[in-house]
Amino acid sequence: MSVTRHALRNFTPQRRDVIWLLLSLLAVWGLHIAHLPLWINGLMALIFGWRWLIESRGWSLPRMPVLLPLTLLGIAGIVASFDGLFGRDASVALLTLMLGLKLLESRTSRDFMLVIFIAYFLTVNAFLFGQSMLVAAGMLIPVTGLTAALIGLQKPQADANHGMQLRLALTLLGQAIPLMLVLFVLFPRLPGPLWGVPKDSYKSMTGLSDRMRLGDISELSLSGATAFRVSFAGAPPKASQLYWRGPVFGFFDGREWLADARAAYLPRESLSVRGEAVRYNLTLEPHNQPWMLVLDMPSQLPEGALASPDLQILAREPVRTRIRYEGVSHTDYTLASQLSPVAERYLLQLPQQGNPKARALAEQWRAQLTDHQAIVDAALRMFRQQNFYYTLTPPPLGTNSIDDFLFNSRRGFCEHYAGSFAFLMRAAGIPARVVTGYQGGELNPVGQYLIVRQSDAHAWTEVWLPNRGWVRVDPTAAVSPSRIEAGIASAISETASLPLLARRDYPLLRKLYLNWDAVNNSWNQWVLGYNQQKQAELLSRFFGASFPLSLLTALFIAVTALVLGVISWILLRDKTARDPLQRIYARFLRKMARAGLQQAPQEGAQDFSHRAQDQLPMQAAKIAAITSLYLQLRYGRPSAASLHALKREIKKLGIKKL
Amino acid sequence: MSRPAAFIKSSLNWKRWLRTARADARRGPVLTTRHIYILPTRAGTLYGTIIIAMLLGSINYSLSLGFVLTFLLAALGIVCMLHTWRNLAWLEISHCQASPVFAGENAALEIRLQESSGRMRHAIYAYCEASLQPQSTDIPPRQSGTITLAYPTTRRGWSEPGRLTLFTVFPLGLLQAWSYADTDCRVLVYPRPAASGSSSASSTDQAGKGSRDSLLGDQDFAGLRHYRPGDSPRRIDWKASSREQGMYSKHFQGEPVSSVWLDWHETKGADGEERICQLVRWILEAHQGGGRYGLRLPHLTLAADRGEAHYHRCLQALALMELPA
Lengths: 658, 325
Known about the structure:
The complex is a heterodimer.
Chain A: H1 2-9, H2 15-32, H3 38-57, H4 64-81, H5 88-104, H6 109-125, H7 133-153, H8 162-186, E1 211-213, H9 216-220, E2 226-232, E3 243-249, E4 251-252, E5 256-258, E6 271-274, E7 278-284, E8 294-295, E9 298-300, E10 306-307, E11 313-314, E12 323-329, E13 332-335, H10 341-347, H11 356-368, H12 372-385, E14 389-390, H13 401-409, E15 411-412, H14 414-427, E16 432-439, E17 442-444, E18 449-453, E19 457-465, E20 469-473, H15 475-479, H16 481-486, H17 488-491, H18 507-528, H19 532-543, H20 549-572, H21 580-594, H22 605-615, H23 620-635, H24 640-652
Parallel strand pairs in A: 14-15
Antiparallel strand pairs in A: 1-5, 2-7, 2-18, 3-8, 3-16, 4-5, 6-13, 7-12, 9-12, 10-11, 16-19, 17-18, 19-20
Chain B: H1 3-12, E1 20-21, E2 37-40, H2 42-60, H3 64-88, E3 92-98, E4 101-102, E5 106-114, E6 121-128, E7 135-139, E8 144-152, E9 157-159, E10 164-168, E11 175-181, E12 187-190, E13 211-212, E14 221-226, H4 238-241, E15 248-252, E16 259-263, H5 272-289, E17 292-297, E18 300-305, H6 308-319
Parallel strand pairs in B: 1-11, 4-12, 16-17
Antiparallel strand pairs in B: 2-11, 3-5, 5-8, 6-7, 6-10, 9-12, 10-11, 13-16, 14-15, 17-18
């Protein structure tokens, strides 16, 4: 087919093609404009303007001496902008730049098609940065535009028919959608990743950190992003019991609480539970860390999860996609009724020095009070009775941060209270650790599920008391009981600094938001969260519990073939052969052919009839009748009855084979 | 060559085995379902590669919307296949003809395509084995479109343009549907005229090239008459014509009787083909001169006459003339 290739390669795109291409590339660029470096955006604007001037003013395309330095400069700029780190951002920037430069040297329709294909590819890259419904809807604009541009390129005629191009593009995409849905639902899904994922792909994900520094959680509280959503099988527990367990920190280095390597080698703590189990489904937003949040205290491991000795639930890989798991927890429990000496030593660890005042206070409690519970109460009483404040904007603290907080500033967020409380307990000889996670959440009446946001991030402590095991103590509750009972918005006076959606003023807005969030939740569950697991779940609903891959493949092929068959039938059936009159008349012609009479190409029905009558005088009357009926039907008003009459006449016609 | 050998040789020409649409008694060749081939174009292969890259990327990054777009584009490709196919299907080559040309000129093969499915056909291309460049046309619903193919001719006689290929890549250029069609169309190629001015049959002073039945009555001017097609430009009265009342040519007495015989035996040339070329040149000049002329060939004599029909009859006789051994 070398002739055809030659023909198609050689024609120059028309002005309408340039317009379609530039407009749809603008739409693709629009998907990326927010996360491209400023200089690339500027350069792209320049390139688009330049390409349009080339078209409208008839300038010539830039040649190699211009393009080559531009390309090299661009690559150097990307290396400099991203510090040589070639990850997601840099590769998208590079792809954008290459698209722009290719546009500048695109001359023939083949070049244009290549640009369009690169642009399709760049469109899919936008999903690396976000997959909201808005982005999904936004994707349709460039895809429609690019398809319309592709259609225009196949027409060598110069006349512009933008309406036809747009209509046809929408028709094609509309007909593609049923097939796309089949592919989406039934195409056998593989678990990713197949190869490495750029390190910067998840940098925008927020969540709990692997260490607690004073100030970390209050910063996280400023984010209104959703951390996870929970739907309970039964009635949800009381708000004061909604402690979502995350990372547990048993080591204090003087500035930060963290989990050091030794924690993993401690003996596993025993758990005994009482009362009713709480069952729930939790959909966790990706946060690029391994922890899986569960309600305190998890009595069953979610599928595929691991548990550390201190009952921290971990995924095998950092959570980089939205995951959904079933949790079973008990709010009434005893954790670690016995503490091994190794564990006790580890859980009493404090730095050699620092924070002398706090240590002195703890020593004093230890001397005065014999009972551990009394020491705990004394500390909580101190927080409650002295003028401690719960605030999102605590003042910076000095080197001895705990002393500074306890005796000087007295303004702090949950991590200040949890961190200094655990320090005091350890100094007083009570094993203690810091637990971070989320507390509370908002029940969405629209979808009957709980939304837990980053602003619900929290830190509390666990102290080990003889015979009772680990007891959760939340010193923040002592300072600000409403934080635990009613959420952060009621506890913080300066609500303006909270994310809008964590606040309580604007009831209408909240209601709208909750509706929107319910829609989003379904989107997340059924579109974004549709993976191998969900696919198996959906199919087992129809076909029973076990559904092997081979059966899925067979089903996929069968349904695809069926849908394709339907679309093909609609598109490909022959409309020319559907004229019933022609079909019946053809029967007559076949009969005549058997008698050796062929209708000549230019011969009309009337002439043929005369010739046939001459040749077959015995049948002349019948032939004349058939022809006159046919002509009546052909040029007069056809009716079902006369059509039937014609059919009958032809049937009656007896022709002997020659 | 022996019969089996010829059979094997023709079988080896694989194009012979391709399905070709042919005319039947009532209609020209129709591109039915049996006649349409379809394969991805080079761009279509690239498109497929990009979709596979997108699929791998979507799996790797667990991008649900990536899957959506990947599958949408894949489905678009499949739907495009159906549209490309139906863009070509059921077209009828209702008419195919070409006017005679002189050897060495490009023949213009006019192909009329009839649409009867009631939908617009876009960018239908056609070429034949001999044609220079594929040409394309759009065909509105239930109407016909014409494609004119130029192809070079070299030898006099009937020239077959070869098998016709119709193809389209519309709407997306990802796939190419094509069909072969045999038309009974052939082009009459007149012999190439010999260089002008070498010798002329109608010039009086060069005896022997043509013989006169009577003298041209050119000397006796009889008046002006309205210009008629076929009048020699030399006889147009430019002065009278410039008065913007129409074209006039000078009329001479005795003109109707002037006629000239163009005789094969009076041509000179190295071989028969050259002699034919010489005759063609004389016919051209005689025709332009507007006079009557007759043609005498070894096996055929055409009586003296004038006008377009006679002109073409003479040229056809020369185009199809079999040279005496």
